[in-house]
Amino acid sequence: MLRPRIIPCLLVKDGGLVKTQKFSEPKYVGDPINAVKIFNEKEADELMVIDIDATRLRKDPDLKLLQNLANESRMPLCYGGGVKSVKQAKAVVSMGIEKVAVSSIAVENPNIISNIAEEIGSQSIVAVLDIKKKTLSSNYDIWTHNGTINSKLDPVEFSQRLQSLGVGEIIINSIDNDGMMKGFDFPIFEKIYSHLTIPMTIMGGVGSFSDIEQAIQKFEYIGVGVGSFFVFKGKFRAVLINYPTIEERDQVILKNHHR
C-alpha cells in the first residue's frame, strides 16, 4: 500500500546546508553529510536535496557531493539543481540516487520530461514547481531560477501537462510560505492534487507536527516536504536536526488513513 511520506528537504549552497525564508537570506546551518547521517539514524522515509544556486548560476550538478550523499544515505534520495539534460539526469541516477528533480528546464522545455523518463523511467523523474500567489489575485504563477523569474504559467494546468508527458511525481513548493513555519497553503495544493493521478509532494510552511498531520488527513497519499521544522528548534531557531519517530509516524498514518 502507498503510504504518505514525510520528507526532510535539505537545501545546499556552496556545498553547505542552508535554510531560507521566502527563497531569500540563506542561513548556513551545517554540513549536509552530517544531516544525512542523522536522518539515517531516524529512519526517514525519503530525503530531498536541492542545490538552490545551480540553475541560477548555470552550474552543473556537483557529482562529487552527490556521490558522497548517496554513499552515506540509507533512504531513497531525490536530488534537484542544475539538471538540464538527459545525460545529466543519467549521471545523477548512476550515483545511486533514486529520483532526479527538474525545475526550470521543465518550464523552458517540457518535452525533456518524456526524454528523461524514456531513459531512466517515469518513477525516477520529478518536477518541482515553485509557486507564488499573484498580487491582488487568488491565482498563482510558477517561478524559476530560485524564485527570480516568473514563467507566468498556471501551476494547475502545467502540472497536468507534465503528468501527460510522463513525469513520475510533482513537487509543489510555496515560495510565500517557505521557511515561515506558519502552515501550508492548502487551497492551491488541493486544487492541483485533484487533477493528478501521480504522486504529489507539498512543501513550504510546516511549523509543527500538526501541520504534517493535517496534510496527511487532507490527502490520502501525499509526500510532505519539511525544511525548517526539522532543522530548527525553538523561537530563536537554534540548529537541531529532528524527525518524528516511527511510532509517531505510524500513529498519524493509522489515525488518518481511511482505506
Automatic annotation (TrEMBL):
GO MF term list: imidazoleglycerol-phosphate synthase activity; lyase activity
Entry keywords, A to Z: Amino-acid biosynthesis, Histidine biosynthesis, Lyase
Record-level GO BP terms: L-histidine biosynthetic process
Known EC number: 4.3.2.10
Pathway(s) it belongs to: Amino-acid biosynthesis; L-histidine biosynthesis; L-histidine from 5-phospho-alpha-D-ribose 1-diphosphate: step 5/9
Catalytic activity: 5-[(5-phospho-1-deoxy-D-ribulos-1-ylimino)methylamino]-1-(5-phospho-beta-D-ribosyl)imidazole-4-carboxamide + L-glutamine = D-erythro-1-(imidazol-4-yl)glycerol 3-phosphate + 5-amino-1-(5-phospho-beta-D-ribosyl)imidazole-4-carboxamide + L-glutamate + H(+)
Protein name according to UniProt: imidazole glycerol-phosphate synthase
Organism name: Leptospira perdikensis
